[in-house]
Every structure is written in structure tokens, then in C-alpha cells.
Protein: Transcription elongation factor GreB
Amino acid sequence: MKTKLITRRGYQQLQRELDHLWRTERPEVTKKVAWAASLGDRSENADYQYNKKRLREIDRRVRYLRKRLEDLQVVDYSPQQEGKVFFGAYVEVEDEQGEVLRFQIVGPDEIYNSKTVISIDAPMARALLKKQVDDEAWVSTPTGRKLWYINDIHYRSDDS
Structure:
């Protein structure tokens, strides 16, 4: 079961995707399907076949987004979070070999197309929750447990 939390920015991105699919892409594809259908034999019409398939994909994604957006809970920054790792935190961690990772902890719907975020459901995020700077966190990985040190925690992105 996916966590139903999302950042405000992530929620707005999903809203924009839904809006684009419903108001822009779906009407365009619907016109293409109607045009291709008007040409006659649909069984050998590649335009019709492809656009009909695309229309089903759009409709499936629209249904998913509408249902998911209803279920999601937007989590905004709160000053009480300062100094500890919670949802929405930007965290820098370092392992014993000096490897440094920087990421934001976000909801599972926000992790696609970005290497700078991890899901709140990820083992790393779970291990870091409620920790402070200079705390240690043991993270279970496929190759065994690994120790990470927390170097930095903040709740404001560098670009905002």
C-alpha cells in the first residue's frame, strides 16, 4: 500500500498532468480517432488502431489521477519540523566511505523522472525519520545493513 502523502508541489504537478490530459491531449486524440474512423475499414487502419489505443491509455491515466488526487493528503512545511527529518525534508547523508547523497523525502507519486527525491516508503527514508544532524541511521539494503550519517536537514529548496 502506497503512502497517501504528497508535497504541495507534487500535488500541483499531478493536477497539471490531469488537466493537460483531459483538456488538451484527449480532445486531440479523439479528433484523430474520428478522422481515422471516417476513412472506412478500421481493422487495417494504423492511425485508428494507434489513436484508439492512446485514447484508452489517456482514459486509464485520467481515472487513476482523479481517484488518486482525491485520496492524497498534501503535507505542507511546519516550523515544528525544523532540525529533524520528516516528510518533505531535504537531507544530505554520508556513508563511512565518504559517499554523499542529497535528496528530498516525498510521496511515492512524486519519485518518477527525478533522481533528487526518494519515497517516504523507501528504507532510507524510514531509517532517517525523526533523526537530527550528526545522528546515525542504519539502512537495510539488498547487500546488507549500511550506516549513514546525517550532515544536513532543511525544508527550503535551493531554488525557492
The chain has three helices and seven strands. The mean pLDDT is 91. The longest strand covers residues 144-154.
